[in-house]
Every structure is written in C-alpha cells, then in structure tokens.
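Anyone up for a design puzzle?
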C-alpha cells in the first residue's frame, strides 16, 4: 500500500515537472511573439496631451519624428495612438504615444538618430523616444542601467544592449556578451605592462 502511494506521488511529481517545463516554454514563446509584434514600434514619452489638435494620428507622428530628429523625409507610419489608459490630467504626465513605423530600415535609422541626439525636443518641450518593448523585456534591460553608467566613464570602451537583454562590451579588440548584470558589474580594465595594451577581465 505504501509502495503504491509512493509510486503515485512520484508519478504526480513527474507530471508537475513536465507541465512546469511546458508552461516555461509557452511563456517564452508568447514573449517572443509579443516582441516580434512590437518590432517596429516606437514609444514617445513627453508629448503633451492634445498636441494632435484633431490631426490624423499617423500624420502627426510622422511630423513629430521628422521635426524632433531632423529627418530629411517624413517617415511612413502604419498607425499611431496614445497608450490605452485613461487620459492624463493637466498635472499628470501625458500618455505615451505608440508609433508603428512602416519600413524596417527607417525604424533603424530613427533609432540611430535617437541614440546620437543628446536632447530631443518637440514644440519647445523635451521628449524621449524608445523602442516599444514587452514589459518583461524592458524590466530585464533596466537591470543593466547601473552597469552602462559605469561603462560610460571608461575611455575606449564601447557597449550596446542587444535584444532581448544582452549587454555587449568591447575594449581594444576584446568582446564580451553578458546576460547577467551582476557578472558585467565585475568587469575590470587594466593595462598589460609588457605590451602596453588594455585588458578586459574580471575583478
């Protein structure tokens, strides 16, 4: 009797473990699909409510990007809308503007311009433009913020955040990719006295 109960418990445990693995796999697939659906989306932060002034949302978004980033041409926009929540009051931050860019190469050109522009303004107001990412991905990428600040002050160090959340660091021909911000935090830079070259290693 006891042996039969133990076998039943083991069988249930195995089923639970199998189901747990399936749930993890499905969650990862859903996250990947969500990311792909947002692949050419921009999230524009700081545009005052009502600036559209009855203008077609797509036309407004195209004009905003052209003026704010100094683009040569107005980008083709598939759709644009405010974040789907209650309209913000006068004393609250405006809802984000979600913009879907039609062409992939235009989207990448816009993001390069964003990265190379220190202060982005529209109608005399400072705004921010980000990739529109799934919340879980955005949260994971945010864990690298402190590391990026540290690397920003290191001369000769280049870094970029790859999708979904991988930090690529290169220094004097040496390149490392990190998925764990804690591991990246322990990077150290020093000079080899014999060769005079900078080294990339861990503390």
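Challenge accepted. My sequence:
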């Amino acid at each position: 009797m006891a042996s039969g109960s133990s076998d039943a418990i083991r069988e249930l445990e195995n089923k639970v473990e199998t189901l747990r693995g399936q749930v993890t796999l499905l969650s990862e697939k859903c996250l990947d699909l969500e990311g792909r659906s947002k692949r050419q989306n921009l999230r524009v932060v700081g545009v005052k409510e009502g600036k559209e002034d009855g203008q077609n949302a797509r036309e407004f978004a195209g004009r905003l990007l052209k003026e704010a980033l100094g683009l040569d041409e107005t980008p083709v926009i598939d759709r644009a809308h405010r974040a789907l929540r209650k309209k913000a009051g006068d004393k609250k931050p405006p809802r984000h503007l979600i913009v879907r860019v039609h062409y992939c190469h235009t989207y990448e050109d816009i993001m390069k311009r964003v990265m190379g522009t220190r202060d982005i303004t529209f109608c005399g107001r400072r705004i921010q433009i980000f990739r529109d990412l799934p919340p879980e991905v955005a949260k994971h990428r945010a864990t690298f913020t402190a590391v990026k600040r540290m690397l920003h002050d290191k001369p000769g160090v280049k870094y970029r955040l790859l999708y979904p959340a991988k930090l690529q660091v290169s220094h004097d021909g040496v390149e490392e990719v990190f998925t764990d911000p804690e591991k990246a935090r322990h990077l150290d830079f020093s000079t080899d006295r014999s060769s005079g070259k900078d080294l990339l290693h861990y503390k």
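A detail worth pointing out: Confidence is low (pLDDT under 50) at residues 191-199.
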